[in-house]
Amino acid sequence: MLLDIQLPGRDGYALLQDLQAIRGDHSWKVVALTAHAMPADRDRAIAAGFDGYVTKPIDVRAFPGEVAALLAGSRESGKPGGSAAPA
After folding, report:
1. How far apart are CA 19 and CA 52, in angstroms?
2. Could you give the CA distance from residue 58 to residue 72 in angstroms, rounded to a whole number?
């Protein structure tokens, strides 16, 4: 699930908390999608419980590979400057 951090009304962090509160066994991954590209922004998102972090603007040619990497366990999209550290 791609969840934009800057949603009107409620931000992505609040919605992530709602998703985390749903009881049961869920295999979904929640990936932060944001224009905030500073390392501290990424660290905050991962600390909040996002399974990955993708920054905008999205490169439409690279995006499918970025999503595949996130589903495989990477915490970042692998864009230049990112570490694509394993989960």
Report:
1. 15
2. 19
Rounded (10°) CA dihedral 77, 82, 86, 87: -70
Indicate the pTM of the whole model: 0.76
DSSP 35-71: S--SHHHHHHHHHHT-SEEEESSP-TTTHHHHHHHHH
Q: Quote the tokens at residue 31.
A: 């990936």
Asked if 75 and 48 count as a contact pair (C-beta separation under 8 A), the reply is no
Quick: pLDDT tens for 34-70: 998 899 999 999 999 998 888 999 999 999 998 888 8
Per the rule left: phi > 0, alpha: psi between -120 and 50, beta: everything else, 85 is beta
Are the C-beta atoms of 83 and 76 separated by less than 8 Å?
Answer: yes
